[in-house]
């Protein structure tokens, strides 16, 4: 086999493993952050289907510390919005469904199952709560990015938001779990009008990268 033929085969394999333009548009280029949703229900099954995709994304030692609280009932919604900025409350109350994405600081207890090759690390982490929380937050935030993309891949639209009083939310909605909230995500289908702000610019590779 000539080098030219080998290069052609490599290019063909790369092309086969790449997503097409329609998928790239769905997940990234044409996907929008939604602020106003249509009155279309979102089921737990839809959310879980997205997680079934997202869970395969890499994390350090396969720690997989992302957790999510499905906030559905009116009572739970009212409790949730009490910990948010005033300007975000109406949007959350009107959204079909909201998730609280969180990091499980007790992730180490599952390491014997998730990372048998590194199970001994669990014992050392047991007495290091600050290290565990830092690891949990980093890896759960990584997984949260996977989940947002997976939600789009399963046909949902997302509107992530910050939490004004994360400590208060944790004490109210996540007490006794070891979970630490990261941010929330509204889910659903976009409203016919006013669903998103106009598309804003993005930075180029030249603006965000350097080479050593």
Automatic annotation (TrEMBL):
<dbReference type="InterPro" id="IPR000415">
    <property type="entry name" value="Nitroreductase-like"/>
</dbReference>
<dbReference type="Pfam" id="PF00881">
    <property type="entry name" value="Nitroreductase"/>
</dbReference>
<dbReference type="InterPro" id="IPR050461">
    <property type="entry name" value="Nitroreductase_HadB/RutE"/>
</dbReference>
<feature type="domain" description="Nitroreductase">
    <location>
        <begin position="30"/>
        <end position="188"/>
    </location>
</feature>
<dbReference type="InterPro" id="IPR029479">
    <property type="entry name" value="Nitroreductase"/>
</dbReference>
<dbReference type="GO" id="GO:0016491">
    <property type="term" value="F:oxidoreductase activity"/>
</dbReference>
<protein>
    <submittedName>
        <fullName>3-hydroxypropanoate dehydrogenase</fullName>
    </submittedName>
</protein>
